[in-house]
Write a structure and sequence with these properties.
Helix content is 35%, strand content 20%. It is an alpha+beta fold. It folds into 3 domains: 67 residues; 115 residues, Sandwich (Immunoglobulin-like); 89 residues, Immunoglobulin-like.
């Protein structure tokens, strides 16, 4: 991907969707109103310093500045914000592409439904959506309260264990939009990021069809074939699913197509062979507190083979 996709956006001031544009208007109005009030207060302060102790009409200032002005300003803002909020998309899955997102300590589980077979497609820490189509995210949390916020596309929505909430969003142009957990959830809260990749509809359909397929077979007698053997030697299948290879574990992210993702570690590292090897060797050194243990007694050659295998899972 090129152009806007090269720089992930995480700013309410650079909206890329209809709802985000409305929320961006709220931000600018509040910035502007706050700036005007600040200037007015500073002007009054300067005026008071020039009056050299002249008595003030206390009742006028208390009544006007402490009651009438706040009531007037807040009433105008309430009316305007209520009117603009009516333009926000309804939080419903009707007619939308539905995607399930579950917050975990400290990563995101993402599930699609394959339109051809109806089977569930699991991925992690990345949501891909078609440009111009309404998307409904069904949100849940598996452990503690999390909160999903993708500033360039939509508002913030809490994720509460045992309860499903929803967030509607739409991207109006291709790009990569960074999201973040916005509710403190533990020591790695700051490193719980998520990227939304908006693709042209045809490109999204091709990506989803590829994600629905099982893992690609490694070349015989190659480095990746050795890496698949190391995957089982290190008992990675106890926590991770690779469809077509090991399909029973759900404790960690699904790795069926991990090589196709932009980043690993919930946005922590760019996804390439070196970062995969570093993560497998000692994730605690990179993200202290995560559930994944360091690789046990793995030699350098086996580690590189495993990283090559994971990188090849496109």
């Amino acid at each position: 991907m090129t152009g806007p996709a090269t720089a992930p956006l995480q700013s309410v001031l650079h909206p890329a969707g209809a709802d985000a544009a409305i929320i961006g208007q709220f931000a600018w109005v509040l910035f502007g109103a706050g700036a005007l009030i600040f200037v007015a207060v500073m002007a009054l302060l300067a005026l008071s310093l020039r009056r050299h102790g002249r008595p003030l009409r206390a009742r006028l200032w208390i009544g006007g500045g402490g009651i009438v002005f706040p009531v007037l300003v807040l009433s105008v803002l309430l009316g305007w914000s209520t009117w603009r909020s009516a333009g926000l998309a309804p939080q419903t899955s009707a007619g939308a592409l539905a995607i399930s997102v579950t917050g975990r300590m400290w990563w995101w589980e993402v599930n699609y439904r394959d339109p051809a077979s109806g089977r569930e497609i699991a991925t992690a820490n990345e949501i891909r959506i078609p440009v111009g189509r309404t998307v409904y995210l069904g949100l849940n949390a598996a452990d503690v309260i999390h909160s999903l916020w993708i500033p360039a596309l939509a508002g913030k929505r809490d994720m509460i264990p045992g309860r499903v909430t929803g967030l509607t969003l739409r991207a109006d142009k291709p790009g990569i939009y960074r999201g973040q957990c916005a509710e403190y959830c533990g020591i790695q809260h700051a490193n719980m990021a998520l990227h939304v990749v908006a693709l042209a509809p045809a490109e999204f359909d091709a990506w989803l069809a590829a994600q629905a397929r099982p893992a690609r077979e490694p070349a015989p007698d190659g480095l990746q074939l050795r890496g698949r053997a190391v995957f089982f030697e290190q008992r990675c299948q106890n926590c991770h699913t690779i469809r077509g290879v090991a399909e029973r574990a759900r404790l960690g992210p699904d790795l069926t197509h991990v090589g196709s993702r932009l980043r690993i570690g919930a946005g922590l590292l760019q996804n390439h062979r070196a970062s995969l090897a570093a993560w497998v060797a000692n994730p605690q050194a990179l993200k202290p507190g995560v559930s994944m243990p360091a690789a046990s007694g793995i030699d350098g050659a086996s580690l590189q083979a495993l990283a090559a295998y994971l990188e090849g899972l496109q």
